[in-house]
Each structure stands twice: as C-alpha cells, then as structure tokens.
Amino acid sequence: MIKLKKMVIMLAKVMIVYASMTGNTEEIADILGEELEKYDIEVEIEECISVTPEDLLEYDGALIGGYTYDDGQLPDEFVDFYEDMADVDFSGMVCASFGSGDTFYDEFCLTVDLVETRLKEQGATVPVAGFKVDLDPDEDDVAKAEEYAKTYANALLGNA
C-alpha cells in the first residue's frame, strides 16, 4: 500500500494587526484569521505594539484593526502604528481594515475609516469596505466576518 502525503500549498501570506482593549477587536482578528486560512492563506496575527507598518511589506496583504475609543479617538497603543503608516508605500498589497466600537458614540468605529483612508493614500488596494462591529461580535457578525474574509481572500488571490 502506498501512502500519499497531503501537501498544502499556501497561496499568499497575510498579516493581521490589531489593537484591542477589551478583547473585542482581538476576537474579530481571530475570526478573520481562521476564515482566511480556509482559503489556504498563511496568516500571522500580531498586536500593533509588536510590529511596525514596514513589517507588513513582507506579506502579500494585511488586515489592520483597532477599536475606537470614546467619541472617535484612536487607541493610545495604536497611534504610533497609525502615524507610521504614512511613511510606508503599500502599493501592490491587498489590505483592509476592521474594528469594534460602540454605537452609543457619534463616531462609530472611526478608527476603521481612518485606517482604510490611510491604506488607500499609501497605495494599497482595498477591495472591501472596513468591517465594523458594535462591541463584541455576535452570531450575525461572525457570518458577516466570514463573507468579509471571503471577499478579501478572492481579491487577494485574484479571484475577484
């Protein structure tokens, strides 16, 4: 009997970077990472304080997430990463943003919008609008995250 080994060829590498105070944005990052792996995409997930925007250039794509603090403020631990993004040319990369916020505030998930705008300004291809979650992800949000990841994966892999 001949046994064949199953080889999995990763088609692309993606870095997911996030800032999370309560764990909500981290949970979204994990959900997105699990979904992308279903498309044979190699995923690395890191907190924003552990990497720099330049580190993202080693990947085919990036998902960048953060929560929106209070009434539209960037998280303190995310400010340096966000500002340093302005010095990086993301041309040729497929990127997107995600995050959590609270609809109680007027500026719901502003961090997601700011990151998306910065990515576009720095030349990234952004195939899907930022993914926003009110507080922690529920069942509906998980389903939306799966669709978001599918759209992103198809764009990254050239299937869009």
TrEMBL record:
What the entry lists under InterPro entries is as follows:
Flav_short, Flavodoxin, Flavodoxin/NO_synth, Flavodoxin_CS, Flavoprotein-like_sf
The cross-references to Pfam families, in alphabetical order and at most eight, read: Flavodoxin_1 (PF00258)
Organism from which the protein derives:
Listeria grayi DSM 20601
Q: Which residues belong to the signal peptide in this entry? A: 1-19
PANTHER family listed in its UniProt record: FLAVODOXIN 1 (PTHR42809:SF1), FLAVODOXIN 2 (PTHR42809)
Q: Which cofactor does it need?
A: FMN
Q: What is this protein called?
A: Flavodoxin
Family assignment from sequence similarity: Belongs to the flavodoxin family.
Q: Which UniProt keywords apply?
A: Electron transport, Flavoprotein, FMN, Signal, Transport
Q: What is the lineage of its organism?
A: Bacteria, Bacillati, Bacillota, Bacilli, Bacillales
Specify the Flavodoxin-like domain's residue ranges.
14-153
Function field:
Low-potential electron donor to a number of redox enzymes.
Q: What domain of life does the native source organism fall in?
A: Bacteria
GO molecular function terms listed in the Swiss-Prot or TrEMBL record: electron transfer activity; FMN binding; oxidoreductase activity, acting on NAD(P)H
